[in-house]
Amino acid sequence: MAEPDTLHAALAAAVRRRPGTPVTFHTGRETLSLGELLDQSHAVAGALAEAGVRRGDRVGLLCQNEADFFRVLIGLGVLGACACPFALPTTARDGYQERIAGIIAAADIRTVVLSERLARLRGVLGSALDGITEVSTANLRGAHADPPATGVTGDDDLIVQFTSGSTSAPKGVRLTHTNVLACLDAIGGGIELTDADSAGNWLPLFHDMGLFGSLAALHHPIPLTVWQPSVFVKDPAHWLRTMSEAGITACPMPNFAYDALARAVPEAEVNDYDLSRWRVAFNGAEPIAVDTLEGFLDHFAGAGFRPESMLPVYGLAEATLPVTFSTLHAPPHADWVDRARLAATGEAVAVARNAPGARGVVSVGRPVARMTVRVTDPDTGVPLAERVVGEVEIQGASVTPGYLRGEQPFTADGWLRTGDLGYLAGGELHITGRRKEMIIVRGDNYYPEDVEAAVRTDPAVHRRRCVAYLDEATERMVLVVESTAPDTEELRARLRARVGAATGLDDVRVVVAGPQAIPRTSSGKLQRLASRSRFG
Amino acid sequence: MSDDVITTVTGIVAGEFGLPAAGISPDVDLSSLEGADSVKVLRAVAKIERTYDIELEDDQVFGLKSVRDAATLVVATLAEKEPSGGGR
Question: Using H for helix, E for strand and C for coil, what is the string for A83-101?
Fold first, then answer.
């Protein structure tokens, strides 16, 4: 029999292998079998078809970490339609409506499926859904006609991810059924999943690591437990106890979460935890700090956490998810290089760990199955030797066919430019920074253009002159404005508030400078990089 | 209502954000506070829940803008939990 080429066909094959595989959602304390989940997804497909959704349509999806997220995603796939998951807001900030409205326009979305659990969110959305057909998940249940046969293939888009791009020009990363299945195979194979494994996830399902980490479990299939992000963030120690008692063997988290766990469990209580069954602790989606890694391993050694379980990984939405995994069954390791030469010349010169000015760069390992990686000169595109920093470029079965619109991320010879900077050493990839000026804070991307747009029209900003850039040392956005007004804390707070309201980025350092203080090019254009060296 | 609740919530927010409570007025947009991020907001919510022995739903938290909003939600949630005067 041919290999399945759609998500629903692959899940049907998984159901045939182990139909009773449990899928547990902490919210609503709901447990169902994978077989039930798939049957319900087909019913949802029938209901969505009745609501007018057709093959090729892009449909907005606003759900928490709940079963309906999967039912709607799989159901849309059955119809050959495409899910556009929306991020949830943290608090009621003004920029959220605009972000959602921008995505709806960019993806030409006419239908949005809204979780019945999120009825209260309707107020926060305001006018963003004007003119859109809203479908509540409450209306997708019950008996519906079978979904129509649509002849959907692996080349149909299944998901468009909107995790990157500015508010003004959101980038929709197209992912086909074929991309997604390649990603799920690469994850399962890369960590040698077996029937004895059990997966857990609290990352948001609208986030690539949360979504595809979870789908990889359903695809094998192995039992999956899904929590709300808030369950982890509110009480990391309680979550850790729950996940270890549930016998979870594989769970993905970003760097900050490993820090949070080490802080949340006091030294004296570490021995009360049993982390010996945690076999794969994916660490990705954020820059990985050596002291976080080492701090976590030291702290939880007494709980039986094995160093070889910690798995630094590298991935991005444009690759569906995984690009490289570090070596399974081996502890993570850092490459120690001369910080000054790395910054000045882009050479990763190995030095002793205790040498003055040594910088530790955590290895994210080698390409996953059906993925290739090269490092090139960002200006000339010429592939570089080992230990020379350049732009990371990728090719492979899970790599997107492109963005929905706008400038495409490919080189002339068909490699996807990631915008990340790194080097290879011993065939292993090491990420050192970003070529783009985008900044990532707790998994969200922010752009200087959006920060500047938020304050440009403020009366205190002299002739709309302002510039924003990333301070790489502190990973913080800096905003410099020219003003004839005095530099007061009140003014800085007001500008910070405008940026926060418009972009959701709150941790901005505001510098108020006099007129003409921002460096300009000969044509009068304000310069970000020169500003960085002037204002720090 | 509830100047006490506002004072308590302000103290919790100040503690989680590492800011002096005096600088946080009840109506300031939480997301405009220096160093604010989604994780700090949720930690403050967790502490509010423990302090008042209540549980706030995520989608209620999505609708909060300020300390006053949070205090109002606390008072409403407490009232639901222990109906005072007349009951239901």
Answer: EEECCCCCCCCCHHHHHHH
pTM of the model: 0.84
Fold match flag (A7-190 vs A235-402+409-434):
yes
User: Per-domain residue ranges for chain A?
Assistant: 7-190, 235-402+409-434, 446-535
Which CATH architecture fits B3-81? Orthogonal Bundle (1.10)
List C-alpha distances in Å: B22 to A536, B14, B44: 30, 9, 17
Grouping H, G, I as helix, E, B as strand and the rest as coil, residue A59 is strand
Q: From chain A, pick out residues whose CB is under 8 angstroms from the CB of B64.
A: 91-92
Mutate to test the interface with A, among B31, B40, B67, B72 (most CBs of A within 10 A): B31
| The token pair that represents A404 in the structure block | 């929905």
Classify domain A446-535 at the CATH class level: alpha beta
Class of domain A235-402+409-434 as given by CATH:
alpha beta
Interface contact A90-B59, CB threshold 8 A: no
- How high is the ipTM of this complex? 0.78
Shortest distance, CA B12 to any CA of chain A (angstroms)? 14
Q: How far apart are CA A145 and CA A130, in angstroms?
A: 29
Closest chain A residue to B58, measured at CA: A230
The CATH label, of 3.30.1330.10, 3.40.50.12780, 3.40.50.300, 3.40.50.720, for the domain at A7-190 is 3.40.50.12780
- CA A46 to chain CA mean position, Å: 30
Asked if A23 and A39 count as a contact pair (C-beta separation under 8 A), the reply is no
CA A154 from chain centre, in angstroms, equals: 23
Per residue of chain A (536 residues), give pLDDT as tens.
578 999 999 999 999 999 999 999 987 788 999 999 999 999 999 999 999 999 999 999 999 999 999 999 999 999 999 999 998 876 656 578 888 999 999 999 999 999 999 888 888 888 899 999 999 999 998 777 788 888 999 999 999 998 765 566 788 999 999 999 999 999 999 999 999 999 999 999 999 999 999 999 999 999 999 999 999 989 999 999 999 999 999 999 998 899 899 999 999 999 999 999 999 999 998 778 898 899 999 999 999 999 999 999 999 999 999 999 999 999 999 999 998 888 778 899 999 999 988 889 999 999 999 999 999 998 788 999 999 999 999 999 999 999 998 889 999 999 999 988 899 999 999 998 766 655 666 656 676 777 887 898 889 998 778 888 887 677 788 999 999 899 999 999 999 999 888 777 878 999 999 887 887 654 445 666 667 777 77
Q: Where are the domains of chain B?
A: 3-81
